[in-house]
Design goal:
With 189 residues, the protein is α/β, with parallel strands linked by helices. The chain has helices spanning 10-22, 36-45, 63-72, 87-96, 109-162, 171-188; strands spanning 2-6, 29-33, 50-53, 56-57, 60-61, 78-82, 100-103. The strands form two sheets. A five-stranded parallel beta sheet has the order 2-1-3-6-7, with helices on both faces. The protein has a two-stranded antiparallel ribbon with strand order 4-5. Helix 1 links the parallel strand 1 (2-6) and strand 2 (29-33). Helix 3 packs parallel to helix 4 (87-96) and helix 5 (109-162) packs antiparallel against helix 6. It is rod-shaped.
């Protein structure tokens, strides 16, 4: 798993590097950037499976860091890594699109690896869900389009019958023509 760590503290970066090197199962390739602009330029240069993002960087602070990152790397899962143990900020980061929120010094190797793995999987599922929703919307639009012409013909024919333009109708036949017309209008809507 290719991980981009955007973190200005070298000690924290080294701790993350050691934890990922000792993680079981997955093999991690870690690239480190010490500010947001460098990190985001690296996103444009390479393919990363995940971004591990500090909130307080020399060139960006707080939730703006998450917003800027997601604006440029919307397809890459982002896990926030910060010293701030603030549930309100954590929830807002998740609402913005971050996949997880880890507090520095409060996680072990297994929790870090699990968080990264789950973040990648959640993001993959969100992308698949968005694609499925797009396909459903496209299919629905196609069906609606394909039904409008025949329904317009049915509505017009029922109107011709109801108005007696095709010959005289009994009151009962006129009621049925009105029902057909109203039913096709509802279906069109």
């Amino acid at each position: 798993m290719r991980v981009l760590l955007i973190e200005d503290n070298e000690t924290t970066a080294e701790v993350i590097r050691q934890k990922l090197a000792s993680a079981r199962g997955e093999i991690y390739s870690l690239e480190h950037a010490d500010d947001l602009s460098t990190g985001l330029s690296r996103v444009g240069e390479g393919e990363f499976d995940l971004i591990l993002l500090d909130l307080l960087l020399p060139d960006s602070r707080g939730l703006d860091t998450v917003k800027k990152t997601l604006a440029q790397a919307s397809q890459i899962p982002v896990v926030v890594l910060t010293g701030s143990d603030d549930d309100e900020i954590a929830v807002k980061a998740i609402q913005l699109g971050a996949q997880d929120y880890l507090v520095k010094g409060r996680f072990d190797t297994d929790l870090l690896a699990r968080s990264l793995h789950y973040a990648v999987e959640r993001k993959r599922m969100l992308i698949e869900l968005a694609e499925a929703n797009k396909q459903i919307a496209d299919f629905t639009a196609m069906i609606a389009h394909d039904l409008r012409s025949p329904l317009a013909n049915i509505t017009a024919a029922a109107s011709i019958l109801r108005d007696g333009l095709a010959g005289p109708l009994t009151e009962e036949q006129r009621k049925w023509a009105m029902r057909i017309q109203e039913g096709s209008r509802r279906l069109t809507a």
